[in-house]
Amino acid sequence: MPASTAVSVGAIDLKSPLICGSGEHLMYAQGIRHALAAGAAAVVSKSTNESEAARRQLDRTDYVLLDSEWRSVPWDFSPPADASLLCRSGLAQQPFDEWLAMLAGLDRGAKTHDAYVVASLVLADLDRCVEMARAVEQAGLRILELNIGAPHGNEAAPGAIVLERDSLRVRAIVERVRAAVRLPLWIKLTGQSEDVAALALAAKEAGADAVTVMGRFIVVTSAVLTGGFDVITRMNDDFSDYLARKRLSARDLIGRAADQISTYAQQESRPEYWRQFVVPAALT
Ligand SMILES: Cc1cc2nc3c(=O)[nH]c(=O)nc-3n(C[C@H](O)[C@H](O)[C@H](O)COP(=O)(O)O)c2cc1C
């Protein structure tokens, strides 16, 4: 029996933890269909909001891949393992109604892959965001992700993209959206804040079903954007192999790392141990 890769996010059962993060490659139906066909359990659409300035920001982006020697790497969808993506981005190019109709159709189709297409909004004006969230629900989409932590929020035109780092405001935003819609609500937060756990708790207490904490450091947007949709299939295969090798299911892994965090007081005392990690010249 192959190991089970199934997990749950709130009340949503996913066939695996592989959720494709939002990005340019998921702006149009073709990209989303490729990601689903490659085996993603959920595909988060390219985000939108009501701001024309946020949409036009995509006209002024640039993208570069640098290797560990800071050399620019060709953009050929086969990057070396040490490549890092540096870029800017803007929002989906379609008008909202077109974007929504496309996603509703794709999410209906995703059911046949036992998968989800997630509508993604980026906060600008809260009243408009609430209206858009209602429209997403009415269109029949099964999950809404709301990004209130986009890293380029501070660089965007005023009012185009909100980057929220204050837990009281996170709570107020999530409460408003939660009161307006009943569908599963995932809140995407910045990972670059002094107290990410407080932001996550505020979102949870205000009614979020899940939070996504983004950095720019681990895979499933940059890897697929730069490496193509085969990356999804490879990730799924690697993950299944790993679970089989370890005789674990995906659910067995949840919380393992967190449960093993120990305090200084709990760690074994090893005087002088640190010396092994210092260049000998510094100790003689
Ligand atoms: C080019 C690019 C465009 C992105 N666009 C969006 C977006 O429209 N909405 C959003 O919520 N996140 C967006 N993100 C953030 C990603 O979904 C993801 O959270 C982030 O890149 C971290 O994951 P990664 O390290 O796998 O890339 C974008 C990221 C990149 C690199």
Give an account of the 3D structure:
The chain is of the alpha/beta class and 284 residues long. The chain has one domain (10-252): Alpha-Beta Barrel (TIM Barrel). It contains ten helices and ten strands. It has helices at residues 29-37, 52-56, 96-110, 126-138, 167-180, 196-205, 222-227, 230-246, 250-253, 256-259; strands at residues 7-9, 12-14, 19-20, 42-44, 63-66, 84-87, 116-122, 144-147, 185-190, 210-214. The strands form three sheets. It has a six-stranded parallel beta sheet, with helices on one face. It has a two-stranded antiparallel ribbon with strand order 1-2. A two-stranded antiparallel ribbon has the order 5-6. It is globular. The chain starts with 6 loop residues before the first strand and ends in a 25-residue tail after the last helix. It binds flavin mononucleotide. The site of flavin mononucleotide (FMN) has 24 residues, from strand 6, strand 7 and helix 7.
Task: Summarize this structure as a short list of keywords or feature phrases.
two-stranded antiparallel ribbon; 10 strands; single chain; binds flavin mononucleotide; 284 residues; 6-stranded parallel beta sheet
